[in-house]
Amino acid sequence: MVLSRRSLLRATALTLPAAAAATAPGTPGLVRSGRPVLTHGVQAGDVRPGSGLVWTRADRPSRMVVEVAGDPGFRDVVRVPGPVLTPDTDFTGRLRVPATHGRVHYRVTAESLDDGTAGEPLTGSFRAVPGPGEPVRIQWSGDVAGQGWGIDRSHGGMRIFSAMADRNPDLFLHSGDTVYADGPLQESVTLPDGRIWRNEMTPEKAKVAETLAEFRGQFAYNMRDDNLRRFAASVGQIVQWDDHEVTNNWYPGEILTGEVGEKYSEKRVDVLAARGFRAFHEWQPLDPRAAVDGRVYRRLSFGPHVEVFVLDMRSYRSANSANTGAGERILGEAQARWLVDSLADSRASWKIVASDMPIGVLVPDGDTAWEAVANGEPGPPSGRESEIAGVLAGLARRRVRNVVWVTADVHYTAAHHYAPERAAFTEFDPFWEFVSGPLHAGAFGPNELDPTFGPSVEFVRGPSRQEASPLEGFQHFGEIDVAPDGSVLDVHLRDQDGASLWTTTLHRA
């Protein structure tokens, strides 16, 4: 059973709703005046050859307008009128703008529908798709505002985003759990050492999200953070979802029961997922119409040496279970076939698979079920492992080289090397999987690995206690540098201040 395409695609036009009441009264930029106000910053994403997608949100009905230039002084401007931001769309909008080369600077305003007067502009920039002979820097990570750790301005807020921005990435891959819709916040949390974390609160973050407005409020909350807004305005993003955009470890057709179910009045996960899906697409700089299925999974070329393949391991999965039976899936037949065909078709030097879950890490769902691919059973692939085995075998048969997997999800950072000589299943070529996170959430792990695909832990860093706070130093992001000629790819696993914890160099085959 998969989510109804009709229910998920309802209201996913290029201009989409946002959270009108997601921020507390009196927040700077939200007090209504004579002119429209942009309330939650600007973002750019899904950069393609010749263009990029710019996002914003206003406080009232208005028209989104973007001016684009090749310099921060906006001396030679191209003006691009955008969509009308209406109550029906809850005042969010996205607009694809020209982006031919180098760093693209954009300036966004909202114009009154009454007299055309414009509010104060917000500016941002992103890198256009690079040409031959240009290096590329990519960052990735996931998990924001989880396990009760929201915005505490006295501790610097979500400061990892400023550390990432300081390193001037060309592209950011958000590996999912962009919000924690199932993770209410408390006003304060006392750490084991006596320090107190004081969360900034909004009504939508005081309970689990069930209504569309509550799901929208999760994204609005995160965009209150100064560090995140600075980062979002400085880099093009490629965003995917995982589970916490809806609820923990969800799968299509699930009915919430037990202690989790008691938190919800709406217990049908498909209903929650449709609302979460809509809010996710409203608040992210991506156009679901450009995805293969109108949802999430898609491919984006970023110059001659990099192509990114974005997976959706949530929408097509079978129910979480012991994960050993025939017919278990995590990608679904169509997506698995698309992944192999697309990777085989790619001419990029490096093919980066942006996966929202790791392959070999054991991720439990309660005491008897598994959440990810691995099932803890030694021997040949079974359950969802069989689907991934088919992907890996297909890549080997078609001699697809230089494939690198990046992911987050498990709230620690690690480097895993998979090799057939160590594996129960041998019909694949060796490959790397790099794990990094969380961005701003509780830290966990490290978890055990399943031996089916022969993983070796080359590096791992996790906390000494589970659910460690952002103050304890176990927030992480990963960084990839691709050489100008594409011959070399360097990977750094970094801490929340940007320091390199571990690095390796891969050479193009």
The neighbouring-strand order within the major sheet is 5-2-1-12-9-8-22-23-24
Counting H and I runs of at least 4 residues, what is the number of helices?
8
Distance N to C terminus: 40 Å
The unreliable regions are 1-31
Oligomerization:
single chain
The count of DSSP E runs of length 2 or more, i.e. the number of strands, is 24
Radius of gyration: 22 Å
**Percentage of residues in helical conformation:** 10-25%
Q: What percentage of amino acids are in beta strands?
A: 25-35%
Largest sheet: 9 strands, mixed
> What's the pLDDT, averaged over the residues?
93
Instruction: Look at the helices and sheets and give the structural class.
Output: alpha+beta
Task: Report the principal-axis shape.
Answer: globular
Q: In words, what does this structure look like?
A:
This protein has 509 residues and is of the alpha+beta class. 15% of the residues lie in helices and 28% in strands.
